Records
---
Amino acid sequence: MSEFEFTAPRAIFMPQRGYEDAYRTAYDLLVRRFPAEALSLIEPALAEDSDHRGLLTLRAWAYMLRAQLGRAEADLRALVERDPSDAWALHGLGRVLERQFRPAEALGYLRLAAVMSDDYDHQAAVYRVEQQLARES
């Protein structure tokens, strides 16, 4: 086996007993940067319960990792609409918009997330987008 070959983690082949197991396993896969494998678990679970916020959050994260920004944006907008106090969804939506070269639209979401979470990465994203907008004007 060469040093550049990756084998799929064992967790992919574990039998799933419901969307609770799918959530747990998909989260583990996303942490390890296996978004395609995570999506293969998330999609069937969402077919059972399409309103499950946790699964929608994981699917948005997987789409972000795969740079499927339109799909990520749709899921994140749905999450923000359901819960406007979800700082992670607000930040994710801002990042997705920023990555789609829509910094003016992203800034409001990023600012809200930064104020709500007081997270350094969220504050850095606000600064980065503000600087980008200042250079463009």
---
Amino acid sequence: MTRLAHISDVHFGREDSDLVDGLLLALAEAKPDAIVVSGDLTQRARKGQFRKARAFLAELPKVPTLIVPGNHDVSATNLIDRMARPLKRYRQYIANDLTPFLQVDGLAIAGISTVRRLERKDGRINRRQVALACGQLGETQENTVRVVVTHHPIDLPLQDRENATIARAKMAIKAFSDCHVDLFLSGHLHAGQAMVTSTREAGVPYAAVVAHAGTAVSTRTRIEPNGWNLIDLDGRQRMTVQQMRWSVEAGRFVHGPHAGFARGDRGWMAS
């Protein structure tokens, strides 16, 4: 069994210190084999906010960690930096690599930056990024769980008519299906959920699990409490996505909604 912690949208600059402490405690108790942070480490991409984010990352459990940027990690006010060096501070304080790749305990995880200088909120993915990730994942062994991490969602439930997937999502889902990606992780919406890609793209040859994480520690909650995902994988056969949600009454993160998935001939399905 391999355990993956998925956190997102910590938004330092708008963080709740009690939740930061609670998250660090919960992660220590969960004992993940790896951690994914899917973007929006800061609220306004300011130096002090990046310093706080970096200090937080240093306090995470000492396991392999993969991080991608979010749209809030690009300055919304300094137009020169936004156009010329959109992720300058992210590269300086967090990670210089915008195409991170991680292998650990039967997992292969490819990170993709969906941030664009001309997009203040929405994201985009291109064929070059997809090809690079597929190339990295395609070199792994057959029994390796293949994971793609973006900040912006690559897929959404059919009933979600308010939010948008990344631009060129349909192209990406088809290509990633061809290279048998098993799991997509993202944030951005501040709402946790888990589903399979075949819900919307019924014709994909290989369906993957899609897991969105809520906002882990920020005060910018929307329709649900702060949360993050704890994902357990039994080889490349079964997967559970356990949403962890902040309980004001308990003063800690507790179990929220839970979803299970099993892998068949055409990919993953709810179980």
---
Amino acid sequence: MEKETSVERKLVENKPRRFDLAHLIKWIVLIILVVLVIIQLYSGEMHKLSRADTFSWIILFIKLLLIVVIIILMRVQRCLKCKIIEPDGCTPELSDMSKGLYVEVKGSASGSYFSHYTLGINMGGSPQTATIEYPGGGGSGSSPVVNGHLGKIFTTSLMDGAYEVVLTVYPYGSGSPKICKKTFTLLKAIVYISRVAGVSALSNVPAPGNPNPFDTDAELALEISPDYPKRSFGGHMTMDGSAYIYECPGRKIKNYAIRYAHVTVPGGEPSQPAFDAAVPAAFGDMVSPLPLEYLTADHYQPWNRVGPAPINLINSWKSFTLFGNTYPKLKSTSWNSNAAGSGRYSLLLTAEDTAGHLYHDIQHIWLDNHNIKGKIVKLQWFNKKSSTWEDLPVCKDLSMKKHEKIRIVGLAWDAVIDESWWPPVAPNDNFGLYNLKFHKQFGSWKDLTLDVLTRVPALPATPPVIVPTDAEAGELAVWDITDLDGGTAPDPYVPAPDPLIYSGESCTYTIRLYVKDNSIVSHDHDGHEAWDFESVKIINDL
């Protein structure tokens, strides 16, 4: 695909033309014939002609006939055909998933002395810079075309409105090119969902990681990575994109809505409906507060256009006053996805124009509105006599000498989004991490563990997945409290370094459990979170 600018167009128009030997030969023959006729008329042949000499008249007739034939051949063979059939009238853009939006130019560019042709596009008499793709590539059309495909004019960067297509057909050798023009109205119908909660729909077309919402296989991801290719979402979220249909006479945006359907079977995501197809029955629920209806002429003010560059699609109407007049204005908001629940869903954006045509774009999403569990259930100590872990009573003081190591038992757990999709992989299984920290009274937080990437308790080998209770709590960490021994207090006394305590002293310590998943909740990339705190008194009796 070549991008033809005004400079490149001049280079194409001014490129050297091939020497037309056949045309030169015709000129030479024509001149010779004319000279022979003149010689015949002024060399005594006039007397023979006046005496009705049959042979002389035949010779003259043949010469004149040859002159006429050569002139006709020169004119016919130098004739160029130039005709534009499409685009014409109200012309919607077509979509090339990897290259952009375009209009197809159909018509004829041919003739016996055809050399090449070029296409251009004007608006208001001014040439527009556009990418033009010719059959076979290159900066011009090199083969004759009769009532067929002349090329594509890519219009992604052009605004809607009235345009003029210019077709210029060039001959071999000398001679003027033939130019034909046709006007049309460009209808830009750009309907897509590009981002959810600020996360782009990434595609493998034309290259991995390319933000390409027009690819129906695109998925919402921060990056395309084998470790974590997709993201899940919960809570309130915006959806960015475009619902832009402007404008031909009697044809522009009328309304748009986003509907959603629950995908209960792995691989059962619905396909994107074709242009003008009815909304499938599976999409029975609508993203609130949509639909957005354009009801009056004032709703079509320029500031109420949604697109073509991505902006928030979740809108309702409000009003504002300008120079004493009140106008409708878009009110950007978000969708509370808790009403939809959790699972694999397909989002369908449908825009309708005033002529009744329907435009669709589909985007698949994982919704996670499960609550995450983070709880310290109990503490245990290891009884060396019985070689078992025993529960510590509530409010029990911990002795370094007797208890030594403390087992922290609890829950750090997040549900699988949809256990119908088994075995669970990201983002269906989107557990993030948990960690434990502690601090001495008036001290700073210290790591009791690093980030642990496995849930407690673990998932079962097969469904069903039951939300664990305190009875299913498991080991979060084992804490060696003798590490807090600060030794004998110095004389003169100074406080023990944080978080230590001297022999014969005691202090209150607070344990903090933090649990998170990898969902994006209300635009916060930290996901669902849970905290729990427990305080204990530790005695250094070593």
---
Amino acid sequence: MERRLVKIGEAAAMLGVAISTLRKWEETGELV
């Protein structure tokens, strides 16, 4: 299976959250 990187804005849109939310999740260890 091919792994594809996505930009943070794309990931936020896919998950329906703000970019700042993804950054917070990364800082708190909720997102790896």
